[in-house]
Amino acid sequence: MGRIGVMSLKSTQRFLALAVLTALAPGMASAASQNVDDLIARHVAARGGMAALKAIKTLKMTGTMRPAGFDAELTYVETIARPGSVRIDATLQGLTIVQAYDGAGGWQIQPFQGRKDAEAVSTDDAKSLEEEADFEGGLIDYKAKGAKVESLGDIDVDGAPTHALRVTLKNGDQQTYYLDPDALLTVRIVTRQLVRGAEVLTQTDLGDYEKVDGVYFPFEVATGPKGETQQQKITYAKAEANIATPPVLFARPAGPAATPGAGPPVAAASAPHSPVPPAKGSPAQQEEAKPPKPPAAP
After folding, report:
1. Which of 74, 82, 141, 150 could bridge to 90 as Cys pair (CB 3.0-4.6 Å)?
2. Phi-psi category of 49—alpha, beta or left, where left has phi over 0 and alpha has psi -120 to 50?
3. Prediction pTM value
């Protein structure tokens, strides 16, 4: 009888514990949500505020790109326009690689592969370009974008503490943002994607923030596979907000690629997953004419 009594007591304790957890769970979830939303609100304020962010309709950033393991720099131009268009051009020795997304589909021009006409990009590359077209980032307005955010707590990045927030995008990709605890700006993003059925982790380090029309944007971006030391580096020298950006800039050309400056622009920059030619005299060029493929641009 005593043994049965003990068993009954334990069952009662488990029942009470479950009842308490069930009663507290909504409040706990609400508190966690409030903590995440509060941190995001502080992040938005640190960048310049929601009003300033929403006031930017187009953004053009110009600089240079040095692919990982590459000994030459390419002229790099990235243009983004709401509600979801992006074009990235990279130019070397008079030839320009182009990748773009017009809000519905992606296309590219790869002259170093002998293809000078525009062609559709893969489904995976189109998804990356679509994410690139969101210059606010996955954290901001995440609910309206159909995403979910969870806090991972405080995590060290290269020996310094950060606040980590994981965003699960509507398309299933995940982006983990690491925010500086003082400035509340993003210092690193780790992106998890499925590419042809395989998991790919990409690390993007951000720095040298400067204000553009009242909003902070990173002017130094380094990207590469997570866990590898070599990264593709982009350094911006100039940023322009709300300049005239005609839709034709993002539209896929119907015929052969135009010369830069002649007709609809097909000119000047490089994109996520775009191959880059080997530098003249490099070992890659000596071995064969096949160009190396740099990691995705952020």
Report:
1. 74
2. left
3. 0.76
